[in-house]
Amino acid sequence: MEKLIEKALEFEVRKMRFPTTSDRIMAAREAKELILSLNEIYKETNDANIMDIMKRLTVIKQRIERRLKGKPLTS
Question: What is the Cα–Cα distance from 22 to 34, expressed in whole angstroms?
């Protein structure tokens, strides 16, 4: 559990610079995997900190997906 939270926090602070489309796809998939894994833990513990991490990762994932669809990031 703690390793998963560490991995999520590390993903959050990583530089979000993806030069290729495949890099963006991989990052979006990794974010989704982390969110779903954290959600399973959250269901058992109802820890507010885990919910906050999931929300922040969701924002990052949405930003990556928006860029994949070709829309500007300012929307």
Answer: 18
At 47, give phi and psi (nearest 5°). Answer: -80, 125
Tens of pLDDT, residues 22-57:
999 999 999 999 999 999 999 999 999 999 999 999
Which pair of tokens denotes residue 66? Answer: 């928006």
Res 19 pLDDT > 60? yes
Q: What angle do CA 64, 65, 66 make, to 5 degrees?
A: 90
